[in-house]
Design brief:
One of its GO terms (molecular function) is hydrolase activity. It comes from Trifolium medium. Keywords: Hydrolase. This is Haloacid dehalogenase-like hydrolase superfamily protein. The chain is an alpha+beta fold. It has a domain at about 5-40. It has helices at about 5-10, 40; strands at about 15-20, 30. The protein has a two-stranded parallel sheet. The longest helix has 9 residues, at about 5-10.
Length: about 70
């Protein structure tokens, strides 16, 4: 992302990746020349726990159409 967005993302607690630069800037957790290096640089993005479940903290609205 851009330097401005990297810093904003870091302020709200996101992990950040600067793409297009090899040197990290303030707030960037990673700096990559190319997005294709992401899997090598951050392999934990591809790891998952089979037991993990998606949970929704509140009610989930579902739109349904009815023909009468």
């Amino acid at each position: 992302d851009s330097a401005r967005n990297i810093q904003a993302g870091k302020r709200v607690g996101l992990d950040t990746v600067l793409v297009g630069k090899s040197q990290r800037i303030k707030g960037a957790d990673y700096a990559l020349e190319n997005i294709h290096n992401l899997r090598e640089a951050v392999p934990e993005l591809w790891e998952f726990d089979i037991k993990s479940e998606v949970a929704y903290p509140g009610n989930l609205a579902v739109e349904t159409s009815v023909t009468a």
